[in-house]
Inverse folding.
């Protein structure tokens, strides 16, 4: 590095442009094409930089799956415990054969088989049901009525 007094800056003091023409050349960020990612993101200039360092910036990439509706499940044991409260709230009907519960009306899509079944349950309006849930309901004296949809 040379000594400060030998630099061009010392000789050009007071000259406004330091030998770079009429107006504002070699000043601020205009000389490098803007600040930051200016021009790169719009694809207007600095294109060689985009091609080299960020080739996948433009266009669509990948696959975005459409989310399916959430599957709401309930276990047979929970249904057995809640059956009396559902009757009192008017969401289930108590009959001679057992307690009739329409799971479609409750917004439940699938019936799973964990827990104990102590009462005969008559299940309506369900499409998806596990094998263990079927066994437990039938052995307790209940029924499974297929959905009409």
């Amino acid at each position: 590095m040379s000594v400060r007094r030998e630099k061009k800056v010392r000789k050009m003091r007071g000259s406004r442009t330091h030998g770079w023409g009429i107006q504002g050349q070699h000043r601020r960020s205009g000389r490098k094409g803007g600040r930051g990612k200016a021009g790169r993101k719009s694809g207007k200039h600095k294109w060689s930089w985009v091609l080299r360092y960020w080739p996948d910036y433009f266009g669509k990439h990948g696959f975005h799956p459409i989310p399916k509706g959430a599957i709401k499940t309930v276990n047979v044991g929970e249904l057995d415990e809640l059956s009396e409260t559902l009757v009192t709230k008017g969401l289930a009907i108590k009959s001679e054969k057992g307690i009739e519960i329409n799971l479609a009306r409750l917004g439940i899509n699938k019936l799973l088989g964990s827990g104990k079944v102590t009462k005969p349950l008559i299940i309506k309006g369900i499409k998806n049901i596990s094998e263990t849930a079927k066994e437990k309901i039938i052995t307790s004296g209940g029924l499974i009525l297929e959905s009409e949809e």
